[in-house]
Specification:
GrpE, protein homodimerization activity, 65% helix, 4 helices, three-stranded antiparallel β-sheet, 6 strands, Protein GrpE, alpha+beta, protein-folding chaperone binding, unfolded protein binding
Amino acid sequence: MTKKANDKDQDTIKDQVEENIDKAIDEVEKEQAEKSENKEVADEDTSETDKLKEDLQKEKDKFLRLFAEFENYKKRTSKERLELFKTANQEVMLAMLPVLDDFDRALVEINKTEDKNLLKGVELIHNKFRETLKNKGLEPVEVESGDTFDADIHEAITQIPAPNDDLKGKIVDVVERGYRLGERIIRYPKVVTGK
């Protein structure tokens, strides 16, 4: 066989393969078209009102979820806003605490003197200052010698041997008062515990 005849046979085979592929593609497309027609007929069987009811239910669910999410957002932001208002003065209060401590120390020292007018004047200023801070939400954390030590509320700065067995693991002395602003402790009381 010559090369031309061989090439001609190969071209004929290629043509036949291409025809068979085209026929197979046409058959698959025809089957898909029939399936989609059958599906359309089935879809037409479901009534238009059922579709509308389903759509309406979906929209109602969507609306309810959106409404609930918005309500949660409103509650969360109002709670955050209230918390912000309660603690907005925190930096100012923290800056005033050393002044309040100085007043307390001054009162202790002035009590040792016999100048009652000086004591009365400083007490008036001290009480006015303390009341002003209290009106703004500042409250002392009540801690006394003999109270049980709680690491969540107290800051232990040292441990000493307990003067008696009753004070083991308890507060022996309060070195610095603690304060809270609203529900938040802004300065923990510094205490000495017994071991």
